[in-house]
Request: fold
Amino acid sequence: MTKNYNTNYFYAFSFLIMLLLSNMSQAQTTTWTGSWDNGDPDITKDVIFTANYTSPSNISAKSVLVSGGAQVTIASNHTFTIENNITVAVGSNLIFETNASLLQINPTAINTGNINYKRDSSPMKFFEYTYWSTPVAGETLVGFSPLTSPSRFHSYDSTINNWVNESPTNTMQSGRGYAIRSPDDYTTTPQTFNGEFIGVPNNGDIPTTVIAFNPGLLNYNFIGNPYPSAISVISLLDNSNLGTMYFWTHNTAIAGNSFTTNDYAIRTRTTGTAAISGGAAPGLFIAAGQGFFASAATTTTLTFKNIMRVANSNSQFYKNSQVVPLNYYIHLNLTNTSGAFKQIAFGYEELATNGYDFGTDALASTEGAITFYSLISPYTFGFGIQGRSYPWDINDVIDLGFNATIAGDYTIAIDHVNPFFDTQDIFIEDTALGTYHNLKTAPYNFNTAVGIFNSRLKIHYQNPLLSNNGFTIIANSVLVNTSNNEIEINSISEKIKTIQVYDVLGRLIFDEKNVKENKFSIASIRKQNQALIIKIELENNQIVTKKVIF
Reply:
């Protein structure tokens, strides 16, 4: 006897829908039939769509059922927040436009049926790649990019530190990164790839294996955001063993057969730097569909979790309040007239040391006409991001290095600084010329031959030719007392010229420019048991910093 599988499937699915409707009837439900029959949806209501719908703004629901051939569209930059299950009936559609977000709360919620999740790439030319990661289960590589050459789908094997060709019919694994070349009909004119993932939306714990990072091998892990919403960089790092993340900027085709940091923007827990080709530095969120490389402290299973997901914040594609360690960073750019560019960052961060700290310090890019980096003893390789012992010390010296493949004129300039350094001089020493230049007054121009130079440039915060050797004594003679519900500052040897107070986010919350006394009390700052940095300039122009909890 021949079985009618289609008929059996229809009856089974109809029974499932009836069961869901029965369960929903026991709770508060609102149905869209062209209008809401029981008020606007919210997180306490089970929501049913039986007619076409486009979100006018953010929307939320306890659970969702899309049926009756309805087409539900969540518009760009809108978030659909759902507490529990999602069911999309056959013949119906739940569509998320690019930059829209699906945020599910319950990690054990079960989803049934496919969604369509759209994601536009940065503009690409022929032969250029984008790093992707699927936010749904069941999507294939060729299904996602059908016009890409069959030999141009790649994953990365960290155990052999090399790219691996993927069959176009392979199903994309959640939590993994994939390098996918632009469609074969692309030309030298940049155009946006309109990607669309079709499958069951990912939710809850998503495991993937990561390999311990070896700086000598550069064996990064190629992973990706597995959810149809952005995830928090800080939450990801706090709930995993990851350290530094590298985001491909889509500006250069893969060259050779091994991973390099060419054209990668770098992100640590506290700051980020732009890629060689420029553009924005990575922010605090990783967009849906984004693949990226990351270093791991140990070989283990990395588990993505719902607590990492965030609403909105889904637009930086390469690409809850966040608790960031107290930190102050300086970003410098090295350029030449031919268009070479390299950005580095160094600064001062709670829990950091002046040695190498996994997750705080990030290796610098090693590609391009010139490489630029700071140095950490005893390592011979350079760092694109370096966190140093906190709090800041005016006597600190930071060694810079560069590798020039083209002789000629170069410029070092400040890209931006934390507000803490707004009034602080930043000098660059050129040991080859015996000069000190204040980067706060103008960029530094210099000429170099081809070669590696790891002892020519140094950063200072005061000009040693003009500095006072008695600074340590002076610093120890400035006392701060917070025991009387106000901040009392007492300078024993020198009168105080100015006082500035910064909060944990680096914001200036108090500024007194004309003290002219040895003692000063601040009563306008409310005590909240928070970390504060007090920057005190004395009449002899020496600057003393003090960290207090107030």
